[in-house]
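Archive record
______________

***
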Amino acid sequence: MSCIGRFAPSPTGPLHAGSVLAALGSWLDARAHGGRWLVRIEDVDGPRCPPGMDREILRQLDVLGLRPDAPPQWQSQRGALYEAALAQLISGGAAYPCACTRKELVLAQQARDRHGDLRYPGTCRPENGGLRGRAPRAWRLRVTPGVLQWQDRRLGPQQQDVEHTVGDFVLKRADGLWAYQLAVVVDDAQQGISDVVRGADLADNTPRQIQLQQALGLPRPRYLHLPLVLAEDGQKLSKQNGAAPFDESRPLLTLKTAALALGLKDLPDTDHAADWLCAATRAWASTHNARF
């Protein structure tokens, strides 16, 4: 199986230390396996994406020397693919309309467990009465009961009971926008992604995506969830907590810092970016076993 990796940033802000780590990790993994590296702009949530930020991110990647092997793709241009996937799920009975508001879900959750995570209780499932005359707001996937097990290339064996953790999850939102879970599954399959390399904060999304892959008859890629860059308060470094863009005047230093966070040590102290990237690729192959 040939390796095709990807970096899929949401253009809600410029790249920072955390997103550079994800970009470098996915780039090194593809290169270490002699594969291809793609970039996908995940702008499916258009209202959160400032105009021009997608091009800014592509420019930043170029500054770092991380260049994709094919033209980037934009989720905002792929709605027809998501529509076809939803139609397939509906025709197979795997998706159903939902009329619940978030307020109703919060109140239902509080009635059961004030301290639990927000979980959809299946209110609008056809066998539970369906919409009951209310207008549909969103579409949900009917999740399969039981514990789903999967293997992460860094974290090892993982498992989650999707039904009891999150319940039937949204595929198309009440505002008409496509949900992340559906878009990423369809995109990864359409682009032939063999290896998803991303931050560990996204690991708990994986079981939902596997359920969608199964429902759509799509192949399951391999997963590797990277360590996170943390802010001073111990939270994940992100645009939401004020992460600063990386210093473009010292791109190689930015890459070296990310490599240390990835656990790559004893790399050559060189000022030649191409030589350093070659050495980092060899170190990644040694650490993560380039053979599948």
User: Anything to note?
Assistant: The beta strands are 4-7, 36-41, 73-74, 95-98, 138-141, 148-152, 156-160, 170-172, 195-199, 222-226.
